Request: fold
Amino acid sequence: MSVTPHKPAKRVTVHTLEEMKQRGEKISMLTAYDYSLAKIVDDANIDVILVGDSASNVMAGHETTLPITLDQMIYHASSVIRAVKRALVVVDLPFGSYQGNSKEALLSSIRIMKESGAHAIKLEGGEEVLESIKRIISAGVPVMGHLGLTPQSIYKFGTYAVRAVEKEEADKLIKDALLMQDAGCFAIVLEKIPADLAERVTAMLKIPVIGIGAGAGVDGQVLVLHDMLGINKDFSPRFMRRYLNLYESIKGSIEHYIEDVKSQDFPNQNEQY
Ligand code: KIV
Reply:
């Protein structure tokens, strides 16, 4: 009897994403912040895992993404990296770790790459962070941009409403996207902007555009894992599709367990030594 040799999964790289855009294959991306869920996401064959600073909200319970630190991002990223065999793992530079100057941005990126083993970093902003983007890329670290609604600037925006609705902001977004491509970014996330604008930007760029709340005319989609699995039951913006209602399933299972303990149904004869 012949045994089929185990074939290791072919890793997704930044070049894989570029090729996917060229042949019109959509890119799938989800967040993950810990070993166990990252393993499931990777085993399901996701293309990109984002260790997002949304960990600040969904893992730590903060109201915004601002409080999470570089050390905490490295902790989450290392846990994810230990689980992943196939996906490209991108890690957010957290607020305050890159806005100071390009040297600070480079040093923060190097810490993420060295201490977690991640494959790329993501940062928010356009022209303002261009020098940092160039310096990080020149050190050999792939950079993903993030335009539109950039949650680290929430106190400047004052609201999580749709961005770039007005022409002036839309024009700046287009200019920023082109600058980021020229600077060498391998992809850009567009968050919560009108679908027709996202489609125009996607058509203009050679690099992949991944949308969240940016419609269907982009090269791929990203969602926060805890939102799409329904672990967070209180967050349901229009763009978010919920694939599970894990909050209710988990709560129900825990209630069942409590009942079993109280009624002495658990453990039974087979569940003890
Ligand atoms: O931190 C995050 O989860 C993100 C996505 C929303 C794109 O940046």
DSSP finds eleven helices and eight strands in the chain. Residues 31, 50, 52-54, 92, 189, 191, 212, 222, 224 surround 3-methyl-2-oxobutanoic acid (CB under 6 Å). Residues 162 and 192 are 5 Å apart (CA to CA).
